[in-house]
Amino acid sequence: MTCLDPFNHLPRGGSGNPDHPIQIAAPHRNTDFDALACTIAATLLYPGALAVLPRSLNPNVRAFLSIHKDHFDTYNAKDIDLQRVGRLIVVDVNCWERLEGLSALKKRKDLEIIIWDHHNNPSNIDATECYQSETGAAITLMVQELKVRKTMISPIQATLFLTGLYEDTGQLTFPSTRPEDAYAAAWLMERGADLNVLGTFLRPAYGQQQKELLFEMVRNATRTRVAGHTVSIARQQVDGHVDGLAVVVRMYRELVNVDAAFGIFTSSNGDRCMVIGRSNVDGLNIGALMQALGGGGHPGAGSAMLRGVNPEAVEGMILELIRGNQQASVQVSDLMSFPVETVPADMPMREVAEVLHQRGCTGLPVVEGEKLAGVISRRDFRKLKRESQFDAPAKAFMSREVVTIGPGLSPLAAARLMVKHDVGRLPVVEDDRIIGIVTRSDVMTYFYDLMPD
Questions:
Q1: How many C-beta atoms surround the C-beta of residue 432 within 10 A?
Q2: Contact 332/428 with Cβ under 8 angstroms?
Q3: Residue 205 burial by CB count (10 A; 0-12/13-18/19+): exposed, middle or buried?
């Protein structure tokens, strides 16, 4: 498979080999707006291609298509004679398992396959061409190419493309958003994308069914600490089809106030199990976890459909995957300073003042043996009213409510703690022992990429 840079190389024009009478564009199951937008964009980049959608569409996508059916020609796999397909354009996905009704194409040696995707996951599709880059939305890649080709698009198409872009980037607020996403959004707005329509269809469905399900999940909620993250996993049986489960899981995570939440939804007969995950930390890649379960997604969101499995076993699998998925990039342990300058709890305040002066720092951790007992800072000296108090030990005036952080957490987690508690440094603690310290300047240096080469 030849993977190409989508911003630098792409064969221009043409609708494919005339010996290939049919070319189709297909997204993943449970099609969201980004996947739908890519499918329609593929029909513009590859003239004559048919948009082939799965039966399982996100509810807001289904509502959009019901209103705009006169503007977008779409088909199901059963409408297509797969023997006549010569080119398959796969969008917003890169594995066969997430395509619906196209398994007959898997063994075709004469089939030309082109992938457009923004997930950085290994692919099991032997593609002829692969256009892949880690943008916030897959439609961004295709909009870039439409822009290069100076392709004319209608305001309705621009609206759909921007809806997909906004959905996958959280209106350009998700950490996965890239500058290319913003440039693509601006180009689409210049071509008449209607923000009012976006607001209508990006509002997720949330009704009585969802409320009852969320109430039950919160009522039975448990919180677990795994690999430095707070995690909550809810197992719930659902009767019949329930829309908006992803919305329920997102709200559940916010209400339970954890780093990551998972919903394991089983059908009443137990033959199917839908797993949905949501996270707001950069050290837990939900998409990678879901891919290990046979699904997929993004760093902050993902899902997988399992069959014939025990929900308890699924929960155990998720926990094991998290334990093996500790943040592989920068952690607090990579930023912290060590060994840590400390003062013993019984050191007189007079000597503490001298240490602070010599070190040129505003505060230091206080230890009893190897354990962190508190923090003493220059502001604590305001508590001293008499000369004799300078002979009292540091533990008499230190602050005992110390905000600490674990070494395996991310710089983002450190920044959030500093903002929440208005502190400029965090002792890094492991097994009740202080092993380092990370400061506000350490975190800012990381975020603004000022680290020396």
A1: 9
A2: yes
A3: middle
pLDDT, tens digit (0-9, with 9 covering 90-100), for 139-174: 999 999 999 999 999 999 999 999 999 998 888 988
Residue pLDDT, tens place only, 198-245? 877 776 656 788 888 999 999 999 999 988 899 999 999 888 777 778
Q: How far is CA 425 from the centre of its chain?
A: 28
pLDDT per position as a tens digit, 185-208: 999 999 999 888 787 777 665 678
Sequence-ordered list of residues with C-beta below 8 angstroms from that of 119, at least 6 positions apart, any chain? 92, 93, 94, 132, 287, 296, 297, 298
User: Which residues span the domain enclosing 421?
Assistant: 333-447
Nearest to 84 by CA among 67, 59, 51, 108: 108
- Same domain for 296 and 159, yes or no, is no
Average pLDDT of the residues in 365-385: 88
Q: 249 φ, ψ to 5°? A: -65, -40
Q: Is residue 308 domain-resident?
A: yes
Q: Which two three-digit tokens encode residue 13?
A: 């024009």
Residues 291 and 349 in one domain: no
- Answering whether pTM is above 0.90, one says no
Q: What is the CATH number of the domain that holds 229?
A: 3.10.310.30
Q: Is residue 195 classed as helix, strand or coil in its secondary structure? A: helix
What single-letter amino acid sits at 218? Answer: V
Q: Kindly state the DSSP code that residue 340 receives in the 8-state scheme.
A: P
- Are residue 158 and residue 178 in the same domain, yes or no? yes
Beta strands 301-307; 363-368: pairing state: unpaired
One domain for residues 188 and 212: no
Instruction: Let me know if 193 is exposed, middle or buried by CB neighbors in 10 A (0-12, 13-18, 19+).
Output: buried
pLDDT, one tens digit per residue, over 273-302 is 899 999 988 778 888 788 778 787 777 888
pLDDT(120) > 70: yes
